[in-house]
Amino acid sequence: MIYILEDAINGVLMGSIYGLTALGLTLIFGVLKVINFAHGSLLMVGMYAAYWSIILTGMHPYVALIIVAPVMYLFGYYLQDIVIKPIFKAQKDVREPITVIIVTTGVWYILDNLTLLIFGPAYRNIQDNPLKGKMLEIGEMFISVPKLWGFVTAVITAAAVYWFLQKTRMGRAIRATSLDREAASLMGINQFKVYNVAFGIGTATAGIAAVTLVPFNNIFPSVGVLFDIKGFIIVVLGGLGSIGGAILGGIIIGLIESIAPQFMTATWTEAIVYGLFLVVLFVKPSGLFGVKYDW
Amino acid sequence: MTRQNINRFALIIVGVVVFGLPLVLRSPTYLHILILLYFYAYLTSSWNLVGGFAGVLPLGHSAFIGIGAYASTILSLQYGISPWIGMIVGGILATIVGILIGFPTFKMRGAYFALATIAFGEGIRVMVENIDNLGPLKINGPRGLQIPPTNIGFANYMFAGKEPYYYIILVMLVGVLALTYFISRSKLGYYLNAGGEEPEAAMSLGVNVAQAKLIAMAMSSFLTALAGTFYAQFTLYIHPKSVMSLDLSFEIAFIALIGGRGSIAGPVLGALLLRPVSDFSRIYFGATLPGLHLIIFGTVLILVMIFQPRGLQEPLTRAYNRLLDKIFGGTGQKEITHEYS
After folding, report:
1. How far is B293 from chain A (nearest CA, A)?
2. With a threshold of 0.80, does the pTM exceed it?
3. What's the DSSP call for residue B153?
4. Structurally, how many domains does chain A consist of?
5. pLDDT digits (tens, 9 = 90+) for A223-268
6. At A277, which CATH number?
7. What ipTM was predicted for this assembly?
8. CB burial class (10 A; 0-12, 13-18, 19+) of residue B331?
9. Which among A29, A267, A277 has CB closest to B130?
């Protein structure tokens, strides 16, 4: 029994990090109504940025946040501004332009393979970091310390994004745009600016998630794909556009992944996750906290 | 010579060239590249029936390739049934799966539909990877199935040279193009078009959009599965990562989008442009610059989406028509350019 509890706790911790990786995805969807297929690749870019800042300076992994988060914000801001905005401008009347989904897929391919070209296919990890392999012993249970840090970071980030959306002027503009583009622009909101900021914040949260992953996860050019697919499932499960839903969806996936192997071959858990995803899509496409209108 | 004759003449020339090519081109490498080019053009044209005409973005079509490949291979390996029959069985199986997928997903919005098809495709791949034996059927999980090249002959869909494969996939490609041509000019084609562009308006005019999309999906999955059998017989080795991968699904969609989805020539044009890029960059830069062709794919995709969202076939068709106009002094009947012609 104690093992199941141990697995459950570690599952919740890992799941919250999954949720953090999906946070940007859900935020970007909420505003742009577009699934950002490049999100996993942005996470991967964040992981490389964190890796190199830690390796080159020897700083504590979490100190890298002060470099990675702003850099990723700017990266996302200008990615949206330069690559995606032209399409939105060309197809103003389309609520959910498929072409934008496709362009983000193009970004995904370019980023992943450019990284492969520059850094090679090698798996990297940070050998001597103060968090690596650390365990917290509670009774007979072992809790992973880097994942505990990740959990705390995920909760703080989600709360901060939520606060930003609720309380700041820009946050209100973002929410207004996500509810109704035309009405928001009529109220004097520059919707393209809002898209840029939302994309920037989404990318910055991917950068934060990357920092939480770097102490214990391998870093390689296609690492994003794993989190990409998981992220899609999480955001639909939680409800596209919902901040809390993303974290909760992540925790559900984390729990399935940690507890299901007790009862079956570990590789089957992936099939269960896909099955659950499809059930949610068919039974309640708006997810746990989504807005009904959006599907 | 009139315009129509010119078009017919060009078509005949192209036909003679593609059918006569193996007589001149003896290099197996180039034949292999051409076969794969037609294979992708065929897959993309089949995808186009749903992804192009029905106006949705399916990203799980490799599941159908896998179903076709596995059905015919299992039947021929374990029961000695000719892959030609297995091909039809695989096609029917894929059609059933396609309808099962299409039924609940077609009412979803764009992003959800794309995600649902990804989940279906990946879910089927994960299942195949985890199953060694399904009842009496040996699937062999992630290790895949190997076809021993022993019984060479037409009945066994197995040939010593590459030429027969070349002609088989060419005939399949011509068939699917002809089918696309007739569908685009049929009631079904117009229904799909209307449903893809403005589903609410189409439905209010009495068009059964969901039914039209389901028919398109059934045809598309059937045709895609046939290509799976072809691939299995051509390479003689299939495993889930090769015939069911997400990358394959995406590549099909990429080719269609760059060439121009919803048009007849688009998929062929896309394959014609992209396949050589990927083959030659793999041959010449595979060791030094891995993934170069995917960077090119991504860049071309983004540029095409920004500057020619209807794909590259549109400017090329326009240029061709302008050329004819010049020759005939603009007297040629102005073609009515609706988007999906």
Report:
1. 9
2. yes
3. B
4. 1
5. 988 888 888 889 888 888 888 889 999 999 999 888 888 887 777 8
6. 1.10.3470
7. 0.84
8. exposed
9. A267
